[in-house]
UniProtKB/TrEMBL annotation:
It comes from Micromonospora narathiwatensis. GO terms for molecular function: hydrolase activity. This is Lysophospholipase, alpha-beta hydrolase superfamily. The lineage of its organism: Bacteria, Bacillati, Actinomycetota, Actinomycetes, Micromonosporales. Keywords: Hydrolase. It comes from the Bacteria. Coiled coil: none annotated.
Amino acid sequence: MGVPTGRVDTILLIHGLWMTSRSWENWADRYAARGFRVLTPAWPGMDREVEELRADPTPIAGQRIAAITDHYARIIRDLPRPPIIMGHSIGGLITQLLVDRKLGAAGVGVHTAPVRGVLRLPLSTLRSGFSILHSPVNRHRAVPFTAEDFRYAFGNTMSQQESDAAWERYAVPGAGHVLFEMAFANLNPESAAEIDKKRDERAPLLLTAGGADHVVPPSVVSANASLYRGSTAITGYRCNPGRSHFALGEPGWEEEADFALEWAVEAANEFSPTVVGQAPGRR
């Protein structure tokens, strides 16, 4: 299991849509027990408890991809050393955007939402976001995420009881504008989800998928990883068979957490320009 070194000692965890920083509690505790400094800042304005955001989702409705990315960029630039950046789902997209800005020692997109350029849009992805995408008026709203919504999008590998318990603890309404930005990124040349896919001087990046993930199936994450083929920077891809979108909490989450950390620590200490200066090319 990776442990802190003199060069990489901090991990920044970014939550995704329908979630808060609470969603990282298992991974954060596990990494902290290894001696890492673990930071779990919320999206701007969402540093509140799940129950409070359900009662008043106003801070969720105002979210935008560019503002979220800028928020985390400021946090990273204020740190004494570049951190490992990990993001789940749309947090994985934010991770890719931050790495594209040459931030971080390494990046991991956990069951990541795609950047602009991925054309695959499976039916399960559309169904997962249907509660928001079915009506244009939801673009400017925070849309409730019901236990039934959660069961299909996150809890499909768990029992009904396990899924309902996870929904009760973690789920908040979804930011309509953020999901609309994602869904129509390929139609918008000014999309906030655009990156330089050929950038060589960025930190190593790992993108992971779940074999049973309804929100971002492996075909989507694999297509995202393939966009980086023109870059000499390190890009990894891993599919975890039988895993749902609830990578942060479904039974067996420890294996994914450990692999992500081990990959990131090794890649950062060997290949990250922000850590070793002149990083060698693709191995």
